[in-house]
Structures
1.
Amino acid sequence: MLDPKRIAINQATTRAQWDFRESVEGYARHGVRGIGVWRDAIERCGMADAKRLLADNGMTVTGLNRAGPVVGLDEGARRAALDDARRAIDQAAELSAACLPVLPGSLRSKSKDMNAVRIQYREALAELLSPARKAGITLALEPLHPMLAADRSCMNTMADANDLCDALGQGIGIIVDVYHVWWDSRLEAEIRRAGKDRLVGFHVSDWLVPTRDLVFDRGMMGDGIIDLRRIRRWADGAGYEGPVEVEIYSNLDWWTKNPHSVVEVCLERCRSVV
Amino acid sequence: MLDPKRIAINQATTRAQWDFRESVEGYARHGVRGIGVWRDAIERCGMADAKRLLADNGMTVTGLNRAGPVVGLDEGARRAALDDARRAIDQAAELSAACLPVLPGSLRSKSKDMNAVRIQYREALAELLSPARKAGITLALEPLHPMLAADRSCMNTMADANDLCDALGQGIGIIVDVYHVWWDSRLEAEIRRAGKDRLVGFHVSDWLVPTRDLVFDRGMMGDGIIDLRRIRRWADGAGYEGPVEVEIYSNLDWWTKNPHSVVEVCLERCRSVV
């Protein structure tokens, strides 16, 4: 069974109901001690107040969402995106976040060249690595589902993420979000390839049949078809000991419910099926 | 530019407007000489009439859709599915179809074990290979997009299809449907790996941003973000000389339009962007 101390919740899971303060206090009331936070929420709250709130509730930050998108941009926008990513590195350091996901983005304007945007992503990561290492912040690669390849992420498999890690060296890790990678026949092998050193996050939700929306129809663990426990054991078997973070985008269902009930169900399902 | 003689249209592209006879005659009127046909349409028309209609219009059959699903079934249903697939082999031979796609299917009932259904698919193909070889029909593997992995196909990449071909030997080929595989960073390498001997079909449509439905929102070539010409050249570069088949599922758009206009746009776009 999953050690309950490892359970974390991403703020997105209750973002329709709770602001930052309510999320931190709400999760804490149910015994959760890890939270994935979002920059806009931190900025609305104010960094000093956010840090105090986290400390007062014994809450650690699993990741700060996020830097990027950084590809498919003209030169001015690309520079601005990299400057913004450097600010995100500083914010992540202030919050002692375990990692900073860097969303690639994908095709923009008229280009259809996926290879070009993939090269841009690698170059942007290379540029961000130096300030990230200096700040002690691990940049996190999170492969997103191929159905998001056109507009949100040009990195769509664990193999692509591992290849990038090979190319870029120390200071980069990988978040396994089961929703995005569960379908991949190479998943077990690529989780093993990532290993203890690279695995910096493990996100859970579930794939619903049918899925009604490409972004906002994720299911509660156990309500869909992902073999969550099997995949979690692959990660643990590869040496991963970090948080198991619930991240559910669900504007048709969970975002309409009482957030305390949502957290209770999250915890129950983490115990029973993850 | 694409040789216009290679252009074919899958009947699904006008399935809301035209029955089998209307499709054959309609495509032929616009100079198209290849059609991807569906078994239910052939059966409604009657095999003898269907063959006459095809011959009278100088139309060849690129593929007969389809055998399967064959996985995730209990033993009785599995036997019935394999028997049905053998009938499909005979029908494909009667129609001189260039290939017979075998849809795997995926998870059913309570199982979440993707590896198990993938093994079932390989076993089903192995069982069908002997009658297919006898009938001179190539079984076609068509990787479907990972967003369809839960319920429609447990085979989701060109790499998986190539691995199956490696395991099963002669008599099996691969259909590259750009809609399903365009996002894959390994696409070019896996098309090359498939090569002339394995490539038995090349289907085109386009990926729309946003995509509003996981199955029925494919775009007309040129209306989306797929670099169609680049991918078609990869296939041609690997030695593929067969049909380029338009297959558009679009209940919100193209299925609501005058089918003659749809065919005209298909042909124009094949010339201008494929």
2.
Amino acid sequence: MIDDVVFVSNKTNIMTTIELASYQIHVGNIWGELENWLQAQSYSRYIILVDENTRAYCWPLLQQKVNLPNPQIIEIRSGEQHKNIHTCTYIWKQLMDEKADRNALFINLGGGVIGDMGGFCAATYKRGIDFIQIPTTLLAQVDSSIGGKLGIDFGDVKNSVGLFTNPQKVFISPEFLETLPEREIRSGLAEIVKHSLIADSELWQKLQSIHQLNAVDWASLLVPSLEVKKRVVESDPLEKSWRKTLNFGHTIGHALESWALATPQPLLHGEAVAAGMLCETYLSGTVSGLDRHEVEAISDFILRIYNKQRFDPASFPTLIELMKNDKKNQDGQINFTMLQAIGTPLINQSCTDQDIEQSLTYYLER
Amino acid sequence: MIDDVVFVSNKTNIMTTIELASYQIHVGNIWGELENWLQAQSYSRYIILVDENTRAYCWPLLQQKVNLPNPQIIEIRSGEQHKNIHTCTYIWKQLMDEKADRNALFINLGGGVIGDMGGFCAATYKRGIDFIQIPTTLLAQVDSSIGGKLGIDFGDVKNSVGLFTNPQKVFISPEFLETLPEREIRSGLAEIVKHSLIADSELWQKLQSIHQLNAVDWASLLVPSLEVKKRVVESDPLEKSWRKTLNFGHTIGHALESWALATPQPLLHGEAVAAGMLCETYLSGTVSGLDRHEVEAISDFILRIYNKQRFDPASFPTLIELMKNDKKNQDGQINFTMLQAIGTPLINQSCTDQDIEQSLTYYLER
């Protein structure tokens, strides 16, 4: 595994714009574009949603780079456990107390929780006010900031209340990554790996050259990775079919993530997904015809980047039970996305419980 | 004023379909259409939202007319005071407990509260499941069932959390009106009167022939009234401009409704709107050139149908203060929709506080 290092992003003056059907994602040196865009609008005020971390580490940068007169800051506590209806009630109440009108702009400055929940509150305040996403974690930059999924956890089920609404724009600056712990960067990288495996073998080749996370030019990986997600979500915005390709690694990954929550070492989402991808790569070899050499190459790469997670074979039945509760299943059958080849996914795949156990054993023994 | 009578709707075998851009409204004898449509879908289950009244008076009719196997009933308490986030939490929890999946159909059987709040819960459960509206009050049939506005009251402000989402279909049966108190019918009629005044002078003429509410063929009034609302909301779905014509009578009406809430005799929405329309008709004569004979004709008609509401001139300042808090105002100026002529509205009109006081005095002294 790559040694932990202090992460330093590459500063660049380049900005790339990804055009989606109804909005744009700007990646790289976003500040001029953001300033110009704000100037061209006529928002009555700016509301910035932060948590204690993004208030301390990201808000100063945003404030320094862009003119936001009389900003109204709404601060919530960081963490998935606060992504719930109580926090929404707090956010709506702040908006009401400050008499934010329909012409206000809501700015989500943070990771996935801020983007998902802040977007949900903005999209439902007075039947919807404009919002933009300024994701500050690698995971949010590459994944949750695109696709229009907004929402909160409800009754112990992740993202079970929410809706699809697109932001006005998404602004992605790798500068924010400088404030992130190495472990968060590694976690976010897992979704880039996934995007390469399901749809971009060229990106996959590029990823092979990663040896030190502090030497990575993130903008150059974010753009092709976002292009993959864009193609997938635009072909199936409401997740009726092809969008399920994005679930690669997530069926076993989500089970590991839930399982680890109850242990002294909870996993970050990307850490769980990395382990899940390795298991589902093995399954793809067993049931979907993925070439043995590709199985090996993917396994090698993942274990070079990620610590192996430890769990006991005694936990296999619990893990399989968790997979059976996945909201994407139908008729009680666990629904997998697998690989036929690198870059070629297959949706709606199934296998036996024994196959799943073998994949978990493969992971532990590899 | 017309004497109170027991209301009996006209049963008819005719069904009229109003085509909107993305869905249809069926009015009249809807049962065959509803049954056929349900048969043609493949919903995994049916969830019916009711309150204690519609469970007792409307659900038996629906159940008798249409085959809905294994219905899941969610019952909430009737009344605007329950249109809040707590009731939403209860509804979402019921859906989760019953493991309703994304392929369930949510059926709103009730008045405006059921339609607005049930639609909001359906549109946000698992990022949105299909729902249909079966409005059972005249007010909901003619008004809130069309236009896609969904939501709840929050922090003492009506409809301040919500969104725009269209139902799969709306089914309007005048048979449900048979279960309504006379006062509710009279209240609903106010929105039909409004639709005629802002956009359909022919419908206005037709309304002149109403002398007994129990002799009215409601389907024949609902259809042209819905056609008016359809034209308005389709020309401006997000209420940026022309949709404001629907606010005629509502600026003063909402103030009277809020004011009366704190008195021993709260007003129904339509009762307040009827009084508001009379005042705003007078204002239209003062500031927007509405012909004096039309002012008189509208005043005569409203006072023939509706009891005059009693309030003291001492409450005028309170009423004007309430108008100034209206969410549709801009720059502290009260925003009125007025009439230039019957069928010809003017949006974004303003007047002096003295004009408003005169209109209230006119109402009281007429």
3.
Amino acid sequence: MSSATAARFAGRRVLITGGLGFIGSNLAHRLSEHGVHVTLVDSLVPEYGGNLFNISGIEAHVRTNISDVRDEHSFAYLVRDHDYLFNLAGQTSHLDSMHDPYTDMEINCRAQLSILEACRKHNPQIRIVFASTRQLYGRPDYLPVDEKHLLRPVDVNGVNKMAGECYHILYHRAHGLNACALRLTNTYGPRMRIKDARQTFLGVWVRSLIEGKPFEVWEGTQRRDFNYVDDAVDALLMAITDDAAMGRIFNLGSSEVVTLEQLAQTLVSLHGSGSFVHRAFPSDRKRIDIGDYYADCGLIEKTLGWRAQVPLRDGLAHTLRFYQKHLSEYV
Amino acid sequence: MSSATAARFAGRRVLITGGLGFIGSNLAHRLSEHGVHVTLVDSLVPEYGGNLFNISGIEAHVRTNISDVRDEHSFAYLVRDHDYLFNLAGQTSHLDSMHDPYTDMEINCRAQLSILEACRKHNPQIRIVFASTRQLYGRPDYLPVDEKHLLRPVDVNGVNKMAGECYHILYHRAHGLNACALRLTNTYGPRMRIKDARQTFLGVWVRSLIEGKPFEVWEGTQRRDFNYVDDAVDALLMAITDDAAMGRIFNLGSSEVVTLEQLAQTLVSLHGSGSFVHRAFPSDRKRIDIGDYYADCGLIEKTLGWRAQVPLRDGLAHTLRFYQKHLSEYV
């Protein structure tokens, strides 16, 4: 983090929902490096991203509080005495949201409302950044997708994340909370869930590759952009400390756009071995697929000065090395 | 209703949520005139629009089922054996949604999901129209507002209605349900709630006028469009019977745009007496006000052939006559 950003965290207390998950734990590592006091809230629901190994090495420097964002009573306590809230907890599986829409709604919609109500009532000065998603756009009308694109989510998860994001912006406008939202694209890197595709399909690709099994590429011609997790962490840190971000919504993304086929080939080549097979979309996935997607990140670059720094090849190489070393902790 | 539309209801069974409310009961009257079998579902929550007097004269021809859309068990039974579902139940007060966001969410968001799940599981052939609202647009970027305008709701009610609408379109795309949505503008007419401003500010204006008290016009320069309830009922009937509507979202509205000041003057002149006072916005209302709004209704006109027929003066005159006669049933 830049020295200007680091200065804004000096002596401050940080709360991270989903703090044992992929992005939350990477953020906790970064903040710990700078001596920032961090409280991690995580439910450790087995189907989600939380994993105690994610804070290996920093356990002594963070406070870990196991609780669920659906539990509004504990959150009303936890939110006090914190300066920054990185609100990253969420149900992330698109497919699970179609089979069990209520759970997705309770977490991505209702719990967001209760988190914001807790902030409004118990800590109205806190600064909040909400991890939203490009899934809100649905199938793009045009590319790259900027923040003016209509929202037409194609799955229950997208609808609920849209409501969750919208509550944050609304609580800024109507109640003066310092809240903003980042619409993340495909984020990858160390500490992501690789057990299954609930968080990202890249997780299972990496797992299969390291386990020496062929992985499946569905179709493969879809173009996407990817962010290495360190870049996403940068954006979170820059947004939460900048007044210019408050009340706003920003795309994350990358100018490096690849097809899933190219991504698979890059992974295999970096790994030095392995293979993948093409497969047609399963029908339940096809119905909620969004086709090509990549973001226009001009707004966050202009407003906050953020742009993705880590080339895809480098990020993938780091990621492979991490899981080669720590596979057993993630499967 | 046109003879073509009437033919599509012959022998069919109709379910209306919010059936004892303003629009639901007017729809029930219309369908009853044509001998259509109607079941009305309503919770009769005192703060909402349900009123048993609204079905005065047709009690014997409709089935009334007092239950709440939040009660997913009764709905799973009720949805069976019906051909059409007019899904009109909702919490409508913007201000209440800011003070009690959970109740608004349970009704306008969670209950919509459970209604759709009930249809998907127990009656996937049913045709559904959802009563959405222009509130989804928030403060317009341009006028008139068409369906391509971004959604930026300014209150909790708007966020939850947005999610409710989005679930309907999603269940069409992902599960093949025959669902569509109409974004209603200010709708007025006989059987609206006039006890307070929870449903429409026009209600309290009409009440005060008839009770001989001055009514309050907040600011007054805001331009709006209005639909007489018979026009809204026409749109609901046309949408639910037309395959071209399914999966789609349409604005309702009117080309007759007036300021609230002009509307107040028209009401006083039609009534022959009465007065109003200008007042600045209360701060809690100002924060969630949307300024000028009127709709572009080109899409529904082109697709379904609907346009508003009742001139504002005529609609207001009908409305005043209704409440002069029946005031005691509504206050």
